Amino acid sequence: MAAIESAGARRRGVEFAPAMSLDPTDVSPILAPLNDAQRAAVTAPLGATLVLAGAGSGKTRVLIHRIAWLIQAEGATPHGILAVTFTNKAAAEMRGRVEALLGSSGGALWLGTFHGLAHRLLRLHWREAGLPQSFQILDSEDQLRLVRKTIRALEFDEARFVPREVQYFINQHKDEGRRPQHLQAGGDPTERSLIRLYTEYEQLCARSGAVDFAELLLRAFELWRDNASLLQHYRNRFRHVLVDEFQDTNAIQYAWVRLLVGATGCPFVVGDDDQSIYRWRGARVENLQKFRSDFPQAQLYKLEQNYRSSAAILAAANALIANNSARLGKKLWTSGALGTPVQLYCAYNERDEADFVIGRIQQWLGEGGRRSECAILYRSNAQSRVFEEALIQARLPYRVYGGLRFFERSEIKDALAYLRLIANHDDDASFDRIVNLPVRGIGARTLEALRETARAQGQSLWHAAGAVQAEPSNARGSAALHQFLALIERLGGEIGGLPLHEQVDHVISQSGLIEHHRKNKAVRGEARVENLEELVSAARGYEPESSELPPLQSFLAHAVLESGETQGSEWEDCVQMMTLHSAKGLEFPVVFLAGMEDGLFPHQRSSNELASLEEERRLCYVGITRAMRQLYLSYAEQRRLHGVDSYNTASRFIQEIPPALLEELRPRIQLARPAATEGTMHHGPRHGRIAETDSGAGGVRLGTRVRHGKFGEGIVLNVEGQGPHARVHVNFEQLGAKWLMLSLARLELM
Ligand code: ATP
Ligand code: MG
Q1: Which of 643, 665, 687 is the last residue of a domain?
Q2: Is position 464 within any domain?
Q3: Are residues 681 and 706 in the same domain?
Q4: Catalytic: 626?
Q5: Which of 313, 396, 452, 482 makes a 20 to 30 Å CA pair with 31?
Q6: Which of 55, 604, 94, 628 is nearest to 370 (CA)?
Q7: Ligand 1 centroid to residue 369 C-alpha, Å
Q8: CATH no. for residue 169?
Q9: Nearest residue (CA) to ligand 1, atom 11
Q10: Atom 24 (ligand 1): residue with closest C-alpha?
Q11: Smallest Cα–Cα separation from 241: which of 259, 215, 219?
């Protein structure tokens, strides 16, 4: 169905000539690269607008062109536009594309993630928000530490109040906009204890000037809700509010947008109910419906042409998602060619799966493709390690998004803790982290006393330390404590006025962290030192997005908010690796969906509950629709994950894809074929072919030297399995280690 035609476009009688022009009033560069439905959405009359459309139909493109259109044709200024994207990377790309369309800087545009924008707002209005000027952001690991501390402070049992669950409890309420005083336990003692923990946790945060991720959003919401004049100021300023990936907004994000828009603003939101994948983090797909009821005049646009994927990939995605019941219903078609069918590979185990993937990447590279065009997507972060090992062995550069991110590495967090404590003496999390790192003889007793004092007086550890060091009873410990406080004070004085990277460099070199890691050879101290050096380069290359904050503050916030997205060298051509969740909005010519096994994907926890199963299916839909030209699905018959072996069957999602669209790369039927028939077809091996008998690995033992027709010579590292399933791990001289199926490999004993 054609999308609603824009009255605005008709009214203006816009010409859609594709020619580029230097005339600043010429809108053709903005409108020419769009199809009719997209153009209608981009030129929609001012007012509430919802673009509801499937994957790869150009929603993000429409949002970008809408920004340019508002500026070029509707007289908006970049200063008057606020746009929300899903990642900082997407925001940077979006800014670049808007600037290219306009031929001018979009610097004044507020463009970022919900968290990034909320942070910016709180920095500007810390006083009104009731925060200390130097407040620090806690990432989820920091938050967990603080939750644990809270549990201990209240002397609750950690076995009953599992820190992660308490953290979840707190965040979930914050995401819904609820403070502890809004909660009622009723008669439930556990609930009562959780509320007490939440209350105590809030006090700890307040005392140390710490703000966790959920708090950023809630605070930013309360800031506007409770400050009518401030809200009015922002309503006057941001008449245009645009949100990408709207289906994954949570309650507080929606409320924040709703507050800003008020009765006069123009919200422009784009989303796809089939790609809502953050329910577990509070996202509410119902916000799409809510938007329509909150803005009954909203214009609805649908886009139905997919520009991203081959017809085979798109058909597979459509067939899969058709199994979900609660859908708003959309059509999605492509004018593109059918392309290669979806390729399915059944591996023996996770290492075989990784070898397969690497082989296909090498094939793609051999055909002239680039590494960065290949993405390996998986359900759980823990799956990345095996791929990383295989990629290292194959000497293929790669980048992992998420997982252990650069700014989350412990040595980096230690160094950042020094900087944070210098910036804000009341930052308890940082104080705790480095007070005895490197070891300076501050004993557990001194620290315990410190925490006691801090708690009793409701003060920060820094304050309490001032008191403890004055006590004569603990001379040695307090001398060390005194030195620590003096060090932090001194460093703070020394770095004032230095350029950012020299500040970072100075603090790292004076902190003693480098010597500390150098001494510690066993845990790869050198690599840690290199990472610390990398932090200095990160600071050197850092460009604050606004001058509202001192550079160090801005850098520290960046380290928490943007961790992971800048890992590795951005410019290097790397294989891309990430979880399915972080792949949202992205696209790659070649996509591998690994670990397509029941229990892993759909996840064990989700298979029994319909709503969760449907969310997993949407996640699979997101994964499939990332692929442009080639899509590989793989699963392993046996998988070791978290140190446990499991034997899984193929994911039910594979069965939901019509067989005609799938091509099995190693049909299982062949696996079971008696291997002897294959062996007899070959003649005259000089050293005798390995016996491919039912008894399994024949004469192959660990350390046996073998030759493979294609891979050359190597040594057997491992033998597993029986009969037709027997397989060997061979370290080839040229190619490194590979798993091979004994019955098919035709190895010669040397
Ligand atoms: P997702 O749901 O995955 O976020 P999306 O709807 O935001 O996808 P985009 O990322 O905007 O889709 O577009 C998908 C791809 O199609 C991009 O490569 C984009 O450049 C291309 N594309 C979109 N519209 C057109 C068009 N009219 N002509 C040519 N290419 C287009
Ligand atoms: Mg998009």
Answers
A1: 665
A2: no
A3: yes
A4: yes
A5: 313
A6: 628
A7: 21
A8: 1.10.10.160
A9: 58
A10: 58
A11: 259
* Residue 527 sits in the same domain as residue 622: no
> How far is the C-alpha of 438 from the C-alpha of 455, rounded, in Å?
25
Q: Which atom of ligand 1 is least distant from the CA of 303?
A: 6
The last residue of one of the domains, among 618, 639, 665, is: 665
Q: Which protein residue has the closest C-alpha to ligand 1 atom 13?
A: 58
* CATH number, position 579: 3.40.50.300
Exactly one of 43, 113, 150, 275 is catalytic; name it. 275
User: 350 is in which domain, residue-wise?
Assistant: 342-405+567-665
Expressed in angstroms and rounded, the spacing between residue 90 Cα and the centre of ligand 2 is 9
CA of 17 to the centre of ligand 2 (A): 26
Pairing of strands 736-741, 727-732: antiparallel
pLDDT score recorded for residue 403: 52
Is 198:180 a contact under the CB 8 Å cutoff?
Answer: yes
Q: What is the pLDDT of residue 106?
A: 79
> Which one of the listed residues 175, 200, 212, 244 is annotated catalytic?
244
Q: Which atom of ligand 1 is nearest to the CA of 54?
A: 2
Atom of ligand 1 nearest to the CA of 61: 11
Mean pLDDT for each consecutive 10-residue tract of the chain (750 residues)?
A: 37 39 73 96 97 96 97 94 89 90 86 94 96 88 90 92 94 95 89 96 93 96 97 97 96 97 95 91 89 95 95 95 88 89 93 94 96 94 82 84 67 92 93 91 84 88 83 68 94 94 94 87 68 82 76 86 52 85 93 95 82 94 97 93 81 95 68 34 33 45 77 77 71 74 78
- Tokens 């690995």 identify what position? 697
Please tell me whether residues 596 and 486 are part of one structural domain. Answer: no
Answer yes or no: 59 catalytic.
yes
- The pTM of this model reads 0.76
Backbone φ, ψ for residue 562 (5° rounding): -115, 15
